[in-house]
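User: quick one, sequence for these tokens?
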């Protein structure tokens, strides 16, 4: 899995350096998560960079990269408890061009929650940034139920 390899790489000393000294999360990974990088405006980029302006501020971002792979036991536990959500209204807005979560991930969610309403959108990881109007519409529909 690409996400597992990336987390392993970024979670070590090399990744710590990339995050601390080069702000890798915002500088490189954020744009890669967009299907249409033109949607990542300078204002949006500044918003994401804001908390990480200085090297000393980037430790938490590096920990997140490290823990994405290192927390599999936690994710497994949460997945085992998914039955608690059975029968609850659910709407999934899925970025079909997300480099981290692919169609097989969505298929797993749809199998687990067959009554969920799914809307696929031709965007990347940040649906709220690339298709805010679609997300707003879907949230409004969900709340109207």
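Assistant:
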């Amino acid at each position: 899995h690409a996400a597992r390899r990336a987390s392993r790489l970024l979670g070590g000393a090399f990744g710590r350096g990339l995050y601390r000294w080069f702000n890798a999360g915002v500088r490189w990974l954020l744009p890669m998560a967009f299907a249409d990088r033109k949607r990542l405006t300078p204002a949006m980029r500044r918003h994401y960079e804001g908390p990480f302006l200085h090297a000393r501020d980037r430790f938490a971002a590096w920990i997140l990269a490290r823990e994405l792979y290192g927390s599999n036991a936690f994710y497994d536990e949460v997945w085992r408890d998914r039955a608690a959500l059975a029968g609850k209204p659910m709407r999934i807005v899925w970025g079909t061009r997300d480099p981290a979560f692919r169609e097989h991930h969505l298929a797993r969610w749809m199998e687990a929650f067959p009554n969920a309403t799914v809307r696929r959108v031709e965007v990347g990881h940040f649906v709220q940034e690339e298709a805010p109007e679609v997300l707003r519409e879907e949230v409004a529909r969900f709340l109207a139920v």
